[in-house]
Structure formats: C-alpha cells, structure tokens
Amino acid sequence: MATARELSAALAGGAARDILAGIYGSKPLSIGRQLTRYSLLVDGFSAAFPDAEDLHLFSAPGRTEVGGNHTDHNAGRVLAAAIDLDIAAVAAQTAGRTIIIESEGYPRHAVSLDELAAKDAEKYTAAAITRGVCARMRELGWRVGGFRARMTSAVPKGSGLSSSAAYEVLIVAILNAFYNEGRMPDIEAARIAQYAENSYFGKPCGLMDQTACAVGGLVAIDFEDPARPIVKKVDVPLAGSGFSVVIVDTGGSHAELNDEYAAIANEMRAVAQALGGRLLREFSRERVLENVALLREKAGDRAVLRALHFFDENQRVAEQVAALEGGRFDEFLRLVVESGRSSWMWCQNCYPRGAVQEQGIPLALAVSQSILGGRGAWRVHGGGFAGTIQAFVPDALLEGFLRAIRGIFGEASCHELAIRPVGTRRLDIG
C-alpha cells in the first residue's frame, strides 16, 4: 500500500529512475521530466481524491504505424511500434461500483458499473470507452470494479499516434491489475479495447493500434486469424540506425472522417464478397486481377484499387521485417516510400472527398521528398485523410527538415519519436 506521500517519496529515489529509464530511455533530461510529470500527477490526484490511500502508477504508450496501412481490418499484416509518448495515470481501487476519471484538459467523467449498456449520447467520448471496456470485460468473464484515477497525456490528440487506443488499454490495465491479478494476456486486452472503440466510441478501427499499445516495442502482427493474431517482436534498435522518426501533423480534424475510414474497409470487403468470401486475406492479388471486369461492376473502380493496395501492402510488411532483421536498412526505407505511394495512389486516403483545396498530407509528402532527396523515407501515417505523415530523416538532415516543415505547418507540427520497449503496464514504484 502506498499513500500519496509515500509514492511521492518513492519517485525521488534511485529505483524510480531505473524503472522510468527502462520505459522512456536513460537520458537524464528525459528522466527528470518524467519524474516531475509523475510527481505533479500524484499531487493532482491527491488534491482531487484526498481520502485515497493505496495509489498505483500506470502508463500506456501511443503507437506509430511503420507498415501495413489499412490492412488490419481485412486480416492483413502490420508493422507497428509503441512510442515514448504516453498516457500516465495514478489510480486507486475503491469498494464502490463507480469509476471516476479525471484527465488533464478534459471534464471529469463517472461510469456506474450498474449501467453498462452503450449510450448514443456518449459516442466519441472517453466515458463511452470506459463503459465499453467494462461491459466487454464482464461479458468475457473478467472481473470489474470501482476505481478513481487521474491521467495526463503526452500523446497529442488527433496526431495519428493512437491516443484513443492508449486510453482504452490503460483502462483495461487498471481493471486487470486491481481485479484480475494482472492475469489478462496482452492480446485479450487489445481485443477488449478494440471492442470498446468499435461498439461504444463509434470508430470502426482494426486491432493494430490496441495491440501495439498493449505489447510494446517494434512488433509485426499477422491478423490472418483475427481471433488469434500472431505477434512477433522485431528486435532491431532503430535508435542506432542514424535516422530519426518524425511524425508531421499537417493539421485538420479527424472528427468528421469516420465514414471515410469505414469506406476503405467496406470497399475492400466488397471486393472479397464479390469473389465469394468475407475478407481480402482469403484471396490473392492474382485472383483480383483475373476478375477486374466483374469487380468493377460489383464493387467499383476505387474498391479494386484499394484491394490491390491491400495485397501489395500486406506483402510489403513481410519484406520490411526481413529487411530489418537482415540489416538492410536502405531496403527497409525503400519499402517505406513504396508504402506511402501505394496509400496515396491506390488506397486514396490522403485527403477527403470534396476537400481538394485542403491537401496537407500530399503537400507534406511532396515537401519531404524534396528535402530528403532520396536519403530517407516518407509515407502516409495511420488512417489518413487528415493529420499526419511519417518520415525517417537522416540525423544530418534533421535540423533543416524540422525547420522547413515547421515553417509550413507550424512550430508544434513535428513530433520526434523513440520506440518504447514495453507496452501498457503498472509501474512498480512505491
């Protein structure tokens, strides 16, 4: 048991520094910032819930997609990584049947465990996710109960770095620690989180984001059997590659894009259904090409192009993993650029329909290509349509790249990332 005072004292000790270094890296400046961040979080929790006695720290990372753009929802392969930007939480178990959560910058919300049916009025809110996680855990036989938590997020909202998935798996982790002795496997946690986002929050996402946030590190995930995805850690230290991973936020809101995201998955499935199946992974690129005339009639031209993107991108993930594990980093970068071009040309998720005058993602891709001149890589990142691209920037070009991009998209547009080796977890501090 740790009181707020005891937890604050533990954060000042050497053991806390070692634990945080294993999550955020060992640079003294980074560790110092995290110690201050967690100390302020404990203080905020204590002020909000002064009677709480047994406090615990949790952390859930955001994620960056490295390969497999829009493949997971059709049982494809993806390559993703947990990142050093996360949601941190202080939480305490309660004897009641209510979950109360405070998040910096958001209104407090409470969810009663006696009212776990989905509510239309709650869609697209954190309360919907909390309620959906509890409902699904109970449905699957996991225990749920009351707790109070205060959270702070370093994952920029709308950045394509999966702040929603991080929040979802964080709620699962707290309930797993408090009421299930930490027994839940990471993949089960990810599936529960995905259910909450699909069925309660209202966003039709695949399983990649939640899996990467739950597992941590650089992971290759094969969803050929969606109920039993194969997760493989790719133990290649990108930090020593001589390149920095930069996410560029080009602006634009994801709030009105759910129909655009859903259309990609639905059109890919329409091609599969026209071929007599359910998901594209059941077929091959050759089968699609043999039936283009039929598929144009039944699903439309864009659906056929998106299907071709799926097959090429699915194979590309396997080639990316092989290139990394074989030490062929130049080949890996070439495949990253191919991924971006396929998303732009065939998947067509670089700007929404009817918004041809606002093309932040294509502009960022074009500018990145011009600045890097073939010495790095650039691609669409995440769902697309608005928001972010990903660039692998040679360290020698990093300063000029950041200066040029910030001059176009603003000072806050660039996020330099490090891959985090561990996923969502309770921190054994105090």
CATH class of the domain at 4-235: Alpha Beta
The first-to-last residue Cα distance is 8 Å
Please identify, by name, the CATH architecture of the domain at 4-235: 2-Layer Sandwich
Main sheet? Answer: 8 strands, mixed
Report strand %. Answer: 15-25%
SS class: alpha+beta
Overall morphology? globular
The succession of helices and strands, N to C, reads HHHEEEEHEHHHEEEHHHHHHEEHEE
Given as residue ranges, the uncertain stretches (5+ residues, pLDDT < 50) are none
Helix content: 40-55%
Number of helices: 14
The count of DSSP E runs of length 2 or more, i.e. the number of strands, is 12
Q: CATH topology of the domain at 4-235, which one?
A: Ribosomal Protein S5, domain 2
How many whole angstroms does the radius of gyration measure?
22 Å
Mean pLDDT: 92
Features:
single chain; 430 residues; alpha+beta; Ribosomal Protein S5, domain 2; 8-stranded mixed sheet; 4-stranded antiparallel sheet; 45% helix
